[in-house]
Amino acid sequence: MLLGSIEAGGTKFVCAVGNDSYQIIDKIQFKTTTPTETLQKAVDYFKKFADLKAISIASFGPIEIRKHAPKYGYITDTPKKKWQNIDFLGTLKQNFNLPIYWTTDVNGSAYGEYTMAVLFNKQINSLTYYTIGTGVGAGTVINGQFLGDTGHPEVGHIRLKRHPDDLDFPGICPYHGDCLEGLVCGPTFEARTGHKGQDVPLQNHTWDIMAYYVAQAALQTTLGIRPAKIIFGGGVVSEAFLDKVRSQFDKLMNGYIDVGNLNDYITMPSVKENGSATVGNFALALRELNK
Ligand code: ZN
Questions:
Q1: Which of 37, 171, 178, 268 has the fewest CB atoms within 10 Å, i.e. is most exposed?
Q2: Chain Cα centroid distance, residue 103
Q3: Beta pairing partners, 102
Q4: What CATH number was assigned to the domain covering residues 2-104?
Q5: Terminal-residue alpha carbon distance, the chain
Q6: What does the pLDDT look like over 66-76, one tens digit per residue?
Q7: Ligand 1 center to 134 CA (angstroms)
Q8: pLDDT digits (tens, 9 = 90+) for 160-206
Q9: Where are the domains of the chain?
């Protein structure tokens, strides 16, 4: 039996086919161009697999996830203008008479990490997965369900206390300026320093400022949701950066709540090379098939 995964990002699409042990059997990736061209490439790819039983899509957003909404399955008001009001799920459904699950990119990743934790009997009932890359977002799984009722959470746009050494930086979110995404997404490195993040050494104070903001996000998540674990993925994140985040988190928490060993509480993804969403999609496709 084969399961399909579409990880739809703003810059690239990763399509994969796997089995019910969540192992990848085949994988392809291509650039996100126009909706028509990109979705056709995804359709053409999956047409090659006659044994495909279900598909799951983890998409960039914002997306409509309310099943009874007229635009269920659409990418809605994304800053990527060409992708506004695109019936992503509908396009797939026109081409495949299969169960198809539809959720956000970060929910897909969160579910992948949750699935791995359950598989390896880590006794975890909940977790929050953040991505810090071109954009910032987070998904939360609690007992196998996603957090979010009237829509998916938009944690990337929460407001934070500004770092005293960063007050002159206006932030780069087109909607809010200095929200979390506007302060810590990958492109903020170039906006602040003129250099890409990968060229800014970890000793540079910009990283401490970033860690201060990311630690606040982890703190808000802890206080608001109390997940068993917070995972950070995406291009900006490294183990060395997370050490800075843990240290700032500890200061901000100031002993109020014991979250256990911080090295286990705030971590990188267990699935390597940004593969969490693919595992999550396989698991969600299987769940949709067995419903
Ligand atoms: Zn914002």
A1: 37
A2: 10
A3: 57
A4: 3.30.420.40
A5: 16
A6: 999 999 999 99
A7: 13
A8: 999 999 999 999 999 999 999 999 999 999 999 999 999 999 999 99
A9: 2-104, 108-272
